[in-house]
Every structure is written in C-alpha cells, then in structure tokens.
Amino acid sequence: MDFATPSHVYDLEQPRYFGAPVFPSHAPGFVYSLHRRHEQGVSEVRTSASGFVYMAEHSGTHIDALCHQAEEMRLYGGQEVNPQIQTPAGFTVLGVETIPPLIARGVLLDVAHYRAVERIEAGSPVTRGDLEATAQAEGMAIGGGDIVLVRTGNGAIWHDAMAYLRAGGINADASSWLASLRVRAVGADNIAWDEVGVVDPDLKVSLPGHLILLVRHGIYIIENLNLEELARNRCYEFTFICLPLKMRGATGSPVRPVALVPVHD
Amino acid sequence: MDFATPSHVYDLEQPRYFGAPVFPSHAPGFVYSLHRRHEQGVSEVRTSASGFVYMAEHSGTHIDALCHQAEEMRLYGGQEVNPQIQTPAGFTVLGVETIPPLIARGVLLDVAHYRAVERIEAGSPVTRGDLEATAQAEGMAIGGGDIVLVRTGNGAIWHDAMAYLRAGGINADASSWLASLRVRAVGADNIAWDEVGVVDPDLKVSLPGHLILLVRHGIYIIENLNLEELARNRCYEFTFICLPLKMRGATGSPVRPVALVPVHD
Amino acid sequence: MDFATPSHVYDLEQPRYFGAPVFPSHAPGFVYSLHRRHEQGVSEVRTSASGFVYMAEHSGTHIDALCHQAEEMRLYGGQEVNPQIQTPAGFTVLGVETIPPLIARGVLLDVAHYRAVERIEAGSPVTRGDLEATAQAEGMAIGGGDIVLVRTGNGAIWHDAMAYLRAGGINADASSWLASLRVRAVGADNIAWDEVGVVDPDLKVSLPGHLILLVRHGIYIIENLNLEELARNRCYEFTFICLPLKMRGATGSPVRPVALVPVHD
Amino acid sequence: MDFATPSHVYDLEQPRYFGAPVFPSHAPGFVYSLHRRHEQGVSEVRTSASGFVYMAEHSGTHIDALCHQAEEMRLYGGQEVNPQIQTPAGFTVLGVETIPPLIARGVLLDVAHYRAVERIEAGSPVTRGDLEATAQAEGMAIGGGDIVLVRTGNGAIWHDAMAYLRAGGINADASSWLASLRVRAVGADNIAWDEVGVVDPDLKVSLPGHLILLVRHGIYIIENLNLEELARNRCYEFTFICLPLKMRGATGSPVRPVALVPVHD
C-alpha cells in the first residue's frame, strides 16, 4: 500500500474568517453565519447546528482556474470569451471543475530566506534571478509538471490585513521563467502572486504573472499560502496535494493544500 | 521521495451547482454568480472574471465537523453548548478548522454490490450485518484509524435530485459497529449517511448515526460522495485524502476527497 | 395638514419567504437566515437578534429600474451599455436609486373581473381591447403621470408557486397603449407583467412589454403585486405610493407599495 | 381625491452601497453584485441585467421590528423566546411583516440646531431636556400615534463611515419620555438611536432606548435617516410614510421613509 513511508503533513492553508486579508475586488471576502443552533425545548435530544457561507471564490487560500483571466478577450487555448461561455452562473469552459486533483512534486523556493529578510515587501519584487539563485542555493531542480511555491514571508502576517496587502510579489520575468520550465502550477504566500498595482512595462498590464501563467501557459496560480512551517524546517521538496472544489463554472476555488514530507528524507 | 509508486487518483466529489440535491435544512444549497466579467473597452488587455458563492457548508460533498451535532446540548467530549461556544459567527470549539488534513487508509464497503442491487433505497437500511458480510466478501479488514466509505449506489443519480433524496441510509447498529472499530471517519454516497426521516427506536432520535459517530465517538461523517468509479474497478482499499477548509467556527466544509490506488496492487 | 381625510390603506406587497414564486433567472429568490439570537448566559438582560438576507432584487413584489432592460445594447434615452456604465457592482446610470419616491394617482384595471374569470392564465393574454373596455366599464380615465395596475387575479395564488408562474400576462399592444397615455409606471399581479415565454411576432422579443415600457418609454414596471383586496372593494382609483430602496446601481428594488383610498369617496 | 394639496416630498433614506457605515454586528452590511448582464451575441435584441443582494436587514436606513430585542428573554407583550418562536428562518411572532404601513403625523426635533452645533457627537447624548426644549422652541406638540424624528446632524457625514459611527445618541431618559407620549415610532440620523457602547447606569444595559422603546412599549425605531433637507427647510411637522418590507420572520427591514409637507403650510 502507498504511504507506507510515514510523512509529516504540512498544512498550507491560512485560516478563513471575516476580516482576513482580501484583494479589494473580492471584498467582503468570506462571511460565515450560524443560523441553525443547538437549542433546548425541541423534540429530540439530538440537535444540529449549521450555517451559510457567503464568499468570493478568490478569498483566503485559493487556486485560480484558467477562465479567471483573459488576454484580449481570449482564454488559455485561444477560446474567445462570448456569452455562451461566460454566463451569469459561470464559465462553460475552463471552469475550476476542470482542474483535476493536483498531486505532484512540489518545490519551495524560499526567496525571503535567500535574501535574508523576514519578509519581502512591495517595491522589491521577486525576480528571475532571485528564483534561480534560491533554487541553486537550496540544491533544487525544477522539472516539468512540478508545482513551485515561492515564499515571500508574508504568510506570517496574515493576521494583519493592512500590512499583508503590502506584500512584495513575483515579477513578470520570474513568472516567464517558471512558465518555460513547464511547471503545473505555482503558488505564493501573498495576496496575488504578482505585486499589486504595478504595471509591467513590456506587457503593459498589471498582474502580468496572471497573463503569462494562466492565459499563455495554462499554469494555475495558488494564492495566500502559509509556507512558514515548511520554511522553518527547510523542506524544499515534498509531495504537494491540492484538491480544488468542483464548483461548476467558477473562476477559482478555496483550497487547503498540503505538503507531505517523508519523515526520513 | 514518496509517491514513487504511480497511483490512479479517484475523484470522489460530486459536481457542485445550483439545483444539485440538498437536504432541506440546507436549502438553497449552493449558488454561484459571476459578477466580474471579461469585457472589452477597459484599460488593459488583461481582464479578470470572478464571482460570489452563497452556500450551506453542508451542501454537496462535504464533511461534518464535531460541533455539528449535540446530544442533550453537549458536544463530543462533554462540552456543554453555551453562548460563548455557539456564536453567530460559528463555534469557538470543535469547528471544522480543528479537523486536520485526513490522510489515511480507506476502505470501501460496496454494500449495493454485495446485495446485488443497482442502488439501495429508503426502507432497506444498511445494517451491521450488511457491513460485516460485505467486508468479508471483499476480504477487507477494518482497523483503527481507517476511513470507511459505504456505497449505496445513489451517487449514480446525483443528477436526479428528487430520487437522490430517497436514498437508503446506514442504520444505528451499523454506525455503532463502525464506532467500535475506532475508525477515523466514515462516508457514504447519500445525502445524510443515515436514512432520512427514520427515528431510531432505541435512541429515539432521527439521524442516529450522527449522534453515535460525531457526538459519542468523535468520528467525522462525509456525505454525498461519488463512489461509482471505485466500485466499478473493485477498489476496496486505498489511500484516502480529504482536506476540509479551515472555515473558522463552521460546522462542516465542502470537500473533494480522493482515493489513491497504486497502479500495480 | 395633509392626510386630513382619513384613508384606508391597502397593502399591495406579497409576503416574502424562501419558496415564494420566483422567475427562474432570479432563483433562489429570497433567503433569510437568523444568525444572531436572543440567548441566556450573556452579559446583559437586553439581547438582540438579527440576520442576513440573500436575495435577487427582482424577487417578490418589486419594481424594475430603467437599467434592467436594454434594446440592442442601449438603455432608455439611448445610452449605450459599456463597462463604465455596467459594472460588477451595478449600473452607474439609471440604477434604482434614480427612481424618486412614487406618489401619484393610481388606477386599477381589474381585467379578470371584466372577463368574469377568477384568474387569467397563460394563453389568454391581456390585450389593449381588454384594458380599454375595463377602463370604460369602471368609468376610469387614465392620464399622464398616472400609475396603472392591472389585475389578472393571480395574486390570490401566490402561495402556489407552480401555478402562479403560469399566470397570464399583458401583451405588447396593451403595453404600447399604456405607454401612449404617458403613464408613470405600471404594475400587475403576476411574475413578469408580460406572459412568460411568448415571443412577440412583431418585435421578435420575449417580454415585449419590458422593451416598450422600460427601454422605449422610461416607464417603470412593478411585479408581483397583490390586488385582491383593492378589487374586492372595487377601488379603481387611489393614491399609489411606492418607495424603491436606493440600492446604488441595482436594476430594481423590492417594494411594499400601498394604495390609499379616502374613507368617504 | 386625497393628496389634492401639492406636497414636497423629502426622501429620508441614505444611499445604500458596500462601504456605507454599518454597526459592527451587522458587517459586511450591504453587498450588491450584478451577475446578469446586457451583452451582445445573444438571441434577442432585448437583454436583461440583474443581480443579487447580500445584506443585513439592519444595514442602511432601516426599521427595527419588535422581535429584534428582548429583555430577560421576553419580547414585547411578554412572549418568552423559545425555539418555536425564534427559528433559523426568523421569528414566528413580531417579525417585521407584522409592522403595518406607517403613515402618520411626523415631528422633527432638530436637537443639533437647538444646541447650535453642526452635529452631536458621542459623549454628549441627547437628553429629555434637549427634546422638550427643542419641541418648545419649534412650537411642536407631540401626540399619541405620532412619529418623532430626532436630528443629531450626523446624516450629513454618511459618506465618512468612521466618523459617522462616533455619532451621539439619545439617552434612556429621553427615550422614556417619548415612550410616555405614546409615540408610534421614533427615528434618528445615527447608527443606533442610542449612543453606542454606553451602558445605562439604571437599566444596566447598553442601547437602553432599544429596551425601553421596542421591548417595553412596542415602539419601532428607525435608524440612519437623512434629516438634513428637512432641517434646512425648518420642516418640523409633516406626514411621515414608512413601508417596511414584509420579510417573514425578519427582525427589521431596509426602508425609504419620506416626509410629505404641503407646499403651502
């Protein structure tokens, strides 16, 4: 049977609650309310409690589906967006339900550690050079089909919504480099992978990584990861598991990715 | 590295969409609306689309947390429900965020197959005898910490909401037996594990399995699984992975569990 | 002081609850959940209870704003729909907040009574001839600025969602006639003013009244009224008051219109 | 016909939008998203746009129903709160649907003007003495069945959510005095009628006005009014109209109250 080797499981999801950091377009983010309560004076000794969730699929730790982004109204693969594809209830192609369970080799590039800083802030984006140097320092090779996670260190301040939103991001050149390696997906411990609000001078778009990765290369992006424990333990290679919910037509899904590391490595 | 043995990945989640079967208490179930659209005439060639989800955490394939059920106002472990614990924003103890990533040995008890029926309907509940006989016929032993999935065959009619809700369930005796084996969690391909609307004559409650498993034994219940492919391939033993979202205070979480089976077994 | 003459107040709003009739595009309609509860064991003797509403603005008794409909991508007044006007958070022109409080002379055309039927069902739409004859029989003249309410009798079966949706509607010719009289708004006791699913042979659109009234003439439409009491008391002329909520950018608003009739008339 | 005297209509509702001031218990307040869009490339020249609202019934300008508050678990009239009355879908007694259309004589007590301040801030609550003196200065008598609106001047800063929440409120003694006059309802241009966060030393509760008015006297409270125009025009007496939505079981309703003043008074 598989899993014979005991593994340590790293939980890479940030907690979800109303007030957690959220990209402004997706406000109010995540709201949970408990309307069904355990109470006395009802007919049975067994009682139930449950609630309702109101949330943006791009809140908290989540994965972006390929329909989430377009370039000149074309999705990954060249499909032009039209009303038959982009509907009030979501997309009829490339929705998050088309993302298979992701189970692959994962690589952590701890750029914050490489730069010897606590966290990378806006204004000093992660470059291709940073990624290459970090990989080299870690002794990590990146192969096709791998999932690459980049640590900026901002996962440690998830509780400070204002500060968290000022995290540094990954620039276009770095995204292009990862794309050239044919990775399956990328992820980071910040709000939007890219640095927010910065327009790439060549592509002339904000969030250029989204264009390069999702639209041009069909590479998924996972945001708001918590990479602190992995980094603390210097785990740069692991089995990465991410299981997006099949919310038909949605442009992304909340996820709780995990990294499995054999106990004896 | 782990996962050296190639595995086939079985996706056990039913698709999520408005109109899918839902237990009446959790209506309207799942609603997704796309309010941010790719459109022309905006400033950049890169466009974004995204939406909002409104859903019961107990809709679609989901896991019940331990706070979901109480017996005489006491949760698993004896904690009495009070306003400090049961709040408008959810529970401060035993919320779904306290469920760790579940990665364990999984066992499928294909009771529908054992009974040689296409699906088990209301009125002929799954008994302890059914489970024991099925396990024996499959040559499966159940050990402590395992996750046991029971197939009624109703996962095949997820598209027919009315019929799906008339699925048969697992009776109290069967739930007790599984509890005695100290399983970690159970799951089934029906709306509520138990048969809906049937009051157990001894416990004098409806959904007795919920009382026995969640409240008395701290065993999670996963509902609305799709076990058809696993059953078709006669996969009765696998690595089961289920990663509930850490929605703070919630009584459950939508999940996309998977079963991993080594290619050569 | 105004209102010196005592008036009987007719409440024209249907009750709102989950499960009430709703036009399919606006499902699930109206959902209310109470997550804040009065409970004991808290710090004060004063307790609060409140909840959350999730609803389509076009559910229950409601008024359509002028941005709700377009003809060849142009709104009333010729404004072309574009991304600056039609945004994820609603419209920047002609949103429901631009509807002033409506206080005007109201006229009830009880067509069901004129036809001597309990209710008008799909297949026998209300025509211009029906409206003219009903007005004449009632001795009612319709002037510019008036608000005309048409009774089909279906308000009496609001509780029967399936049957209610099969109500008859008002045809294009009748809508055009009302538009020619320069009414301020119209309303009916059915789901969509027009008969659902019928394409007008001349305009080649479904819901032609919406095109004629909202887009071409800037006349508001109020749907799902309850006109039973007004009709029972043969009140064909009254002061009509309707106060749409200023939900910025929305395409309509739930309303509770009333009709005031002096006690001695 | 009534309304023969032309009237000026004062709109007393504040605009609704995401980000408007909201009492913390009711966050995120009001959210509107437009998921159905006018778009080209569909079958008809007529297109529709509409959305979904997610809101607390106590957001924006709204009225509190009698079930909203309790004293020692008893509602107005002595009804004890129990699970048959207080349900996940709202209250089965005293829900907002039991509030009839409110059409009554309205009186504005412009206390800010009386005190010669731009607005009344937290720390200097409106007292009984303030109300009596203001009424006298305005030459206004208050009778049974009247609806009394108190101006603190904070309606002018609705756009500044932080500052707005620091508004002054009406103290318990003032609320008691209004109750003794047997008014039908009261309203103010602040977030909660009472001053937020202040515990009344005698009643030992916060928001004592809520206890006195709603629970002990069955007097409705309307919050977040905009009284600026009324005040500017020194209109202290008018016909007040408020039409709460019949949201079954809800603890309040958004409203757009108006004040009608005859043009020649």
* Number of contiguous helices of chain A: 6
Q: Provide the residue-averaged pLDDT of chain A.
A: 96
Sheet/helix structural class of chain A: alpha+beta
Largest protein interface, residues of each chain: C-D, 88 and 89 residues
Strand order of the largest sheet of chain A: 1-15-13-9-10-11-12-5-14
* Proportion in β-strands of chain A: 25-35%
Oligomeric organization of the protein chains: homotetramer
Biggest pleated-sheet summary of chain A: 9 strands, mixed
What is the tally of beta strands of chain A? Answer: 15
- For the termini of chain A, the CA-CA separation is 19 Å
Uncertain runs of chain A: none
Radius of gyration of chain A: 19 Å
Shape of chain A: globular
Textual characterization of the structure:
Four copies of one chain form a homotetramer. In chain A, 16% of the residues lie in helices and 26% in strands. The first copy, chain A, contains six helices and 15 strands. In chain A, strands 1-15-13-9-10-11-12-5-14 form a nine-stranded mixed sheet. In chain A, helix 5 (208-217) links the parallel strand 11 and strand 12. The two termini of chain A are 19 Å apart. Strand 3 (46-48) of chain C pairs antiparallel with strand 6 (69-71) of chain D.
